[in-house]
Structures are given as structure tokens and as C-alpha cells.
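Internal QA ticket QA-208
Title: Verify multi-chain structure generation after dependency bump
Assignee: T.L.

Test input:
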Amino acid sequence: MKITIIGAGIAGLTVAISLRKFRPDLELEIYEGSPELRAAGAGLALGANAILGFDHIGVKTEVLAASNVLECFKILDPKGRVITQSDNLVINRNLQTISNFAVHRADLQQVLLAQLPGVAINLCKRVWDFRQVENEVQICFADGSSTRSDYVVATDGIHSIFRKKLLPESKIRFAGYTCWRGVVGGGEDLPSFKNLRGLNPATASETWGLGKRFGIVPLPNDRIYWFACLNSPKAKEERFAAFGKQELLENFGELHAPIPEIIQLTDPSKILWNDILDFSPVKNFAFDRVLLLGDAAHATTPNMGQGACQAIEGAVILGKTLAKIADPQAAFQAFEQVRLKRTALIVNRSWQLGKLAQLANPVLAALRNGVFRLVPDQMNERQVKELLDVEF
Ligand SMILES: Cc1cc2nc3c(=O)[nH]c(=O)nc-3n(C[C@H](O)[C@H](O)[C@H](O)COP(=O)(O)OP(=O)(O)OC[C@H]3O[C@@H](n4cnc5c(N)ncnc54)[C@H](O)[C@@H]3O)c2cc1C
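Actual output:
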């Protein structure tokens, strides 16, 4: 019996590891549209739920070795004053769990690939169309070739061709803000966070200005991952395409130190730019012999740092479901039952959090900050508890 995975992002690779572990009897094939496997030059926050997931597929030690522990997360105002903070050490002790971590995407990709010796990843194989016939799925690639498989796990990302065909009513939403990302430090000739005032390597932060936000996430090896979100009237706004360091400094340079320094230190050729997109929660992930997973199924805005974490959870749960239910079609249905509600909750909450974080009205932003300052610690703890409430 053959399962074909489409897309070798975090979701596809983690699904492959999970299937190898829980259903080694299944033949596995991976097709990836890009000519090479190259992760974005950016960081990724890994919530404790993702780390617990990695533990179930035997990769936790390797992932943690490539990651930086985050003991604290702070939301700051433009002058650097704390609006609210969540002390992961205390929360972890209370909930008896582990912390959150941050990893460079390329490092995570290497860790995942190292777990898949002997699994061929077919590159330059962009799926162009597919068809489910009685006993199989026929897959056509853009290069004119085709293949067949008994089952497909579509992990082809937010613009999934599978979702477009299976759920044509599901439309991409622009969140109203756009995002630049970068990584600084790490090399001998490059400055590290040690040179930057007021940065703690175990603390991640977001600074909320008016209609703008700047995040700082320390990575291992003296590197800092940063992101900068700015409200935008529309997706693909032409003037943002030309944004370089100068324009970022003009927009974020008034925020507290060391934000201007971090922008200044970034190699401009390595700055990434993306609009923030998602789509409303869908009603199905399982379609007979095809299952949507990861961003293809439930892309979310990055405000909770949960997009990849949900893909990781899903990959682990799919493997475990297949270990219990031998028939993939039935397992896909069972998977859908347990994953729809949780992922919808995260997509919706993340969307709302983004709206709050990007408030541009000074009165509303001041009100928001005032309310957040009053949030008791137990509330942060309750949110972490909810995120950890996943049955693998
Ligand atoms: C600015 C930003 C910050 C984020 N920060 C975080 C964070 O801190 N923590 C977190 O958990 N998540 C975060 N996310 C979300 C996270 O990046 C995604 O949820 C995650 O990468 C999704 O992985 P995926 O494998 O499902 O999709 P993708 O990473 O998009 O992978 C899809 C793969 O499929 C391939 N593909 C696409 N179409 C085809 C096709 N037709 N045929 C064959 N192959 C195809 C692509 O080339 C790609 O390799 C962030 C997202 C953004 C935009």
C-alpha cells in the first residue's frame, strides 16, 4: 500500500517521519515542487506542544539540540516598557511541562531530513492536477509526468492545489498587515545579541506600536530572528516590494533599542517579505483517499506562533491514528474528527490576536495596553494549558 506525500515542508517531512515510525509497512513517496529543499532564512517559535509531538516520533532530542529555550515572552510598548509578560519557567513548573523554543528553519529542516535516510524526495515535481478514481489517486505533474498512489497526504502549503480543487469555496484572506523577517548574528564577523543592549538570550519579545509590531526571537549560536509587521491597505502593496533597510528604519526606527540596531545589522539581501494570509477554517480535511494536512488544511496567521506547531501535531496524530486504524481512508476520517475543532480555534484566535496587535488607533491601542497590563498571570497559564491540551 502506497502513501504519497505532496510537499516537503515542515508538515510533509514530519508526516514522513511519523509514518515511518508508526506504519513502516506503508510504502512512502514524497514529491516536492521546488528544485531544491531550501528553508526560509528565518526563525520559528516551537511551542511546547510541538516539542511534545516531536517526542512521540523520537526527534525531540535532536530538535532541542538545534533550538534555543525561551524562558520568557514579553509584549512591550514602543518605549520598551512591559505591557504583559509570560514567565514560561513558572508556567512550566505549574503545568509540569517543558518550555517553548526557537529554531532556525534551516536547522529544523536539517534535523527532519536526517531522520529520513533512504526516503527519496522527488524534487521539481510540482503537482498540477489530480484525480481520484475508484482504487487510486492519479497525480499529474507540471513537467508532464504522472504517477499513481493508493493514498495522498497533501502538505502542499497555504496555496494547496489539492485544497483548491477539493474545497473551491475556501478563499485566502489577507490579514491587513505585511511582514518582513530576518536573522542577524552567528558569524565571527557579525555582531551577536551580546553586543546589543538589553537583550536576554532566553527572552522573546514583541513590541507593539501603532499599526506596527516588531518581534525579537533569540536563536542558538548568537543569532537573532526578527520580524516586523506593518498594516497595509492591500496584499502585494507595490511600495512594500521595494522596501529595504532604509524604509524599515523609517517605519520601525522610532521603536526602542535595540530594534533600529537590529535592522541596521541585517544583511539587506536576506530580508524576507510576505503578506500575512490565512483562510477561514474549513469543514473537512479528509476526502476519500486524500487528506489535507499542515498549512494546506489550516494555514493560520503567525500571531500565536502555531502554524508549524499545528502541522507537527497533525503529522504525529496521523501516524498514531494509522497505527490504530489500518485502513488509511478510515484513519483519515478519524484524523479529521480530532483535528478540525482544535485547528479552527487556533486559526480564529490567531486572527483576532493579530487585529489587536496591529491596532493603529491610538485611543484603542492605549485601551488595549491598559487591559493587557491587568491580565493576571493565571490567564497566560490558562492559554498555555489550552495549547498543551492535545492528545497524541
Ligand atoms: C511570517 C511568518 C511567521 C511564522 N512564524 C511561525 C512560528 O513562529 N511558529 C510556527 O509554528 N509557525 C509559524 N509560521 C507558520 C509556519 O511557517 C507554517 O505553518 C508552516 O511552515 C507550514 O508548513 P507546511 O509544510 O504545511 O507548508 P509549507 O512550508 O508551505 O510547505 C509546503 C511545501 O509544498 C511544496 N508545494 C507547494 N505546492 C506544491 C505542488 N503543487 N506540488 C508539489 N509541491 C508543492 C512547497 O514548495 C513547500 O515545500 C509562520 C508563518 C509566517 C508567514
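Spot checks passed. The pocket of flavin-adenine dinucleotide is lined by residues 6-12, 31-34, 44-45, 126-127, 155-157, 161, 179, 181, 227, 274, 294-295, 302, 305-309, 311 (CB under 6 Å).
Status: verified.
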